[in-house]
Amino acid sequence: MIPVLSLLVVVTFSIFVTRIAAVALTHTGMARQAARFQARSAFSGAGFTTSESEQVVRHPVRRRIVLTLMLLGNAGIVTAVSSLILTFVRAGDAGFGLEIKIALLVTGLLALWALANSSLFDRAVSRAVGWMLDRYTELEVRDFGSLLRLGG
C-alpha cells in the first residue's frame, strides 16, 4: 500500500513542479501555452527542438529553470518507476490484494489528472506562484531580445 501512496505523492509533486516552472517561465515573458509545454517537455526529458526551445536556451533565467526541471524530472521518473514496481512486486501487504492496489492507483491517478486539468486549480496555483515569484525573486519579466526581434 505504501508504494501506491508514494507513487501518487511523486505524481502530485511532479504536477506542482511543472506548474511552478510554467508560471516562472511565463514571468520571463514566454506565452502561457509555450511555457507549459516547455516545462513538461523539460521535466519528462522529451527534448523537442522548436523555436520555443531556442527561446528557452538563449535566455539565462529560462535556461536555469529548465535545467532544474531536467534534474527534478530524472529523479521523479526513477522514483515513480521504482514505486510502481514495488506496488506489484512487494509481497506481504496485509489485506491488500492486487485488485485493491490497482483500483487505488487508478482512482488516485484519475483524481490527479482531473486536478491537473482543472482551470480553477490552474488559476489558484498560478496566482500563488506568481505572487511568490514577484515577492521573493527578481525574475527578468521581459525578454527584450524577442520583443525587439533581435534574434538574428
Report the average pLDDT across residues.
Answer: 79
| Helix/strand structural class | mainly alpha
The percentage helix is over 70%
Main β-sheet description: none
Radius of gyration: 18 Å
Q: Give unreliable regions as ranges.
A: none
Shape: elongated
- Kindly, what is the distance between the CA atoms of the first and last residues, rounded to a whole number of angstroms? 55 Å
Number of strands: 0
- Element order, helices and strands? HHHHHHH
Q: Bin the strand percentage.
A: under 5%
Number of DSSP helical runs: 7
Keyword list:
152 residues; 78% helix; elongated
Report on this structure.
78% of the residues lie in helices and 0% in strands. It is elongated. With 152 residues, the protein is an all-alpha fold. The chain has helices spanning 2-27, 32-44, 51-58, 60-89, 98-116, 119-136, 144-147. The protein is built from seven helices and no strands. The model has no long low-confidence stretch (mean pLDDT 79).
Layout of helices and strands, plus pairs?
Layout: H1 2-27, H2 32-44, H3 51-58, H4 60-89, H5 98-116, H6 119-136, H7 144-147
Helix pairs in contact: 1-2, 1-4, 1-5, 1-6, 2-4, 3-4
Short description:
78% of the residues lie in helices and 0% in strands. It is an all-alpha fold and 152 residues long.
